[in-house]
Amino acid sequence: MKQLRNFLYTLLGMVFVFVLFLYHRPIARFIMENFIYKNDMVIQEKNQYYQELNISYVQETEDFQPKNRQDLLNIIYTILNNGWEEYTFFCDESYESCFNDAKTLTENPEELSNFNNFVHPYNSFNHLYIDINNFGKIHVQVEKTYTAEEIQFIDSEIDRIMGETVNDTMTDVEKIKAIHDYIINHTVYDSEGAENINNENYKNEKATHTAYGTLKYHIALCGGYSDTMALFLDRLNIPNYKISNAEHVWNLVYVNDTWLHVDLTWDDPVVDTHENVLLDHYFLITGTDLLAKDPIHHVFDQNIYKEGI
Fold it and tell me: Among 38, 77, 119, 161, which one is least packed by beta carbons within 10 Å?
């Protein structure tokens, strides 16, 4: 009897080991989802900079278990647009290429940077960390572009400038033009920063790629111009996002039922006489007119920025 009992124990142990070997991944995943990372997967509240933007490339989602690459993009966009600083989710088990798709994103900073163009500047990231493992767990951590102190300064400047430049009797186009002209008239292009854009040893201490540098020091790169314009457009409740390519970024604005391009950088040219020139060559123009004026520096991915076509 004792031998039979020992045999049964041994048999059960072998069956347990076999089952554990056969289903170790689903078991490990179940434990991670339901115990280890459960608190990291709780849906958080949207912050005050959340935007409702109806665009083609990415959409807001409530399903945080991606089944394909588009779902993965939508989740990352939702995390950023909601203003979350971190979030953990798991890929659907049917999504076999999830690990590779997520890994490809982490290796392509230019593609990741596109997400910044579709969210409020205060929800944009300076660094976006995506940690992935073979069990389908993805952890996203956001290091935001703007600090609380910078936001406080920018908001106070926007309040002041809005009071000086726009009023309720103006049309949306007139308001946009007033802000366009104000920014250009009070800003010069950062030629030194542009020359050192690929110099890893160069420190842009005036942060001219942000709205803080633009409004604090009145000097800007294209990122500073476009972020500053985006913040004013958001304050005016005018739908907008930014368009970028490998070397440039500008604004796309939805006004009078049409998406139109605005490029403050190119309307504030650097001239030999060092005059502060104000142009409107790139003010509220169609995608066709934009590419006709400049078919080189304003080329953009039309699969991503479909509204700009």
Answer: 38
Q: Is the dihedral of CA 110, 225, 228, 267 positive or negative?
A: negative
Q: Are residues 25 and 47 in the same domain?
A: no
Q: What is the spatial distance between Cα 172 and Cα 187, in angstroms, rounded to a whole number?
A: 23
CB atoms within 10 A of CB 163: 9
What's the total number of domains in the chain?
Answer: 3
Residues 133 and 152 in one domain: no
Q: Which amino acid is at 301?
A: D
Instruction: Give pLDDT tens digits for 140-168.
Output: 999 999 999 999 999 999 999 999 999 99
Q: How far is CA 187 from the centre of its chain?
A: 25
Enter the pTM of the model.
0.88
Q: What is the pLDDT of residues 92-144, one digit of tens each?
A: 999 999 999 999 999 999 999 999 999 999 999 999 999 999 888 999 999 99
92, two tokens: 């659907």
Distance of alpha carbon 73 from alpha carbon 102, whole angstroms: 9
Same domain, 21 and 67: no
Which residues face 133 on adjacent strands?
A: none
Tell me: do 29 and 105 sit in the same domain: no
- Rounded to 5°, angle at Cα 210 from 309 and 116: 45
Domain limits at 82? 41-144
20 and 73 housed in the same domain: no
296: which 2 tokens? 């080189």
- In this model, does residue 268 exceed pLDDT 60? yes
Check residue 38 and report its DSSP letter: T
DSSP string, 77-144: HHHHHTT-SEEEEE--TT-TTHHHHHHHHHT-HHHHHGGGGGS-GGG-EEEEEEEE-TTSEEEEEEEE
What does the CA dihedral 200, 206, 207, 210 come to, rounded to 10 degrees?
-150
pLDDT at position 21 is 43
Over 90: is that where the pLDDT of 201 sits?
no
Examine the domain organization and report whether 3 and 84 are in the same domain.
no
Helix (H, G, I), strand (E, B) or coil at 249: strand
